[in-house]
Amino acid sequence: MIEIKNLSFGYKKRKLLYRNLNLQLAAGSIYGLLGKNGAGKSTLLKNFIGLLFPTQGELLVNGFVPKKRLPSFLQTIYFIPEEVYVPSLTINGYKKLFAPFYPMFNEDQFHDYLELLDVHDKGKLKTFSFGQQKKFIIAFALACNTKILLLDEPTNGLDIPSKIKFRKLISSVFTEDKMIFISTHQIRDLDNLIDNVIIVDNGRLLLQASIAEIEKRLSFKMVDQMPDESDVLYADSALRGYSVVMQNKTGEESKVNLEYLFNAVTGNPAKAKSIFYKN
To answer: N or C: which end of the chain has fewer CB within 10 A?
Structure first.
């Protein structure tokens, strides 16, 4: 669905946010793009939708070149930015104006999603709180049933109950013919939701791996004493010992901790690369 070959991008020629990035992203996955603030996560999503253009390299999304912004392309993809914008319309007015652009829009689903996210206000969208505006846009985007859904920091502005409902809703609507791509630095909000992890830092791709592959390659556990440092990518002292991320040499099963994974890969990229990309 998304093919990236040697993509480079920068707002200034001498300072690139991405350098020779290569990615192949297929349908049937919920991807989590993890990176620090300022790492260029939002920029990458804007390249996907054709709001920004690569300085070099190739980018295809659903078989289209995004920068052309063809209507046939735009109806296959929906992008929710971190800061959503809503016009001075009611929910019904918004639906009447924008739903026709999306051939697969389902009105019954739209109202179901609004109900699930507790969006009941009948006034103008401009009068909603930021959290309610964001939940409204999420409900509308999901009801459009596009092949690709891009979400930039989708849980910003949501309270804890709404974050839980958001995760449940995304899981319930996901199908194998779609791709959901979530960019965030709030890593804990993606727990139990994503099945593929992408980590970027300083313009480089440090990791692209499925949760299953991460579980196979790494072990996440609590230990009383620090193990051999040659196997450890990350360690954090805790009340009862150490929380560690280390190479899984024995095939033991453990649950991936995304926060520790991010710290391990960004803090020790060379060792992570040797574990995941060895022959």
So the answer is: C
For 245, the 3-state DSSP assignment is strand
Task: Judge whether 126 and 166 are in contact, CB under 8 Å.
Answer: no
pLDDT at 195: 92
pLDDT value of residue 15: 66
Distance separating alpha carbons of residues 43 and 117, to the nearest angstrom: 28
Nearest residue to 9 via CA among 42, 62, 52:
52
Q: What are phi and psi of 212, to 5 degrees?
A: -60, -40
Average pLDDT score, the chain: 90
What DSSP line would sit under 76-124, residue for residue?
TEEEE-SS----S--HHHHHHHHGGG-TT--HHHHHHHHHHTT----S-
Q: Is the pLDDT score of 279 beyond 70?
A: no
The answer to whether 154 touches 134, Cβ cutoff 8 Å, is yes
Quick count: other Cβ atoms within 10 Å of Cβ 226? 13
Say if CB 32 and CB 258 are below 8 A apart: yes
Classify 13 as helix, strand or coil.
coil
Q: Which two tokens stand for residue 176?
A: 């194998």
* CA atoms of 275 and 30, how far apart (whole Å): 23
Domains and CATH numbers, the chain: 2-202 (3.40.50.300), 211-276 (no CATH)
In this prediction, residues 230-237 reach a mean pLDDT of 85
Q: Which of 93, 102, 116 is nearest to 146 (CA)?
A: 102
From residue 10, alpha-carbon distances to 17, 56, 66, 203 in Å are: 5, 10, 17, 10
Q: What percent of the chain lies above the pLDDT cut of 90?
A: 60
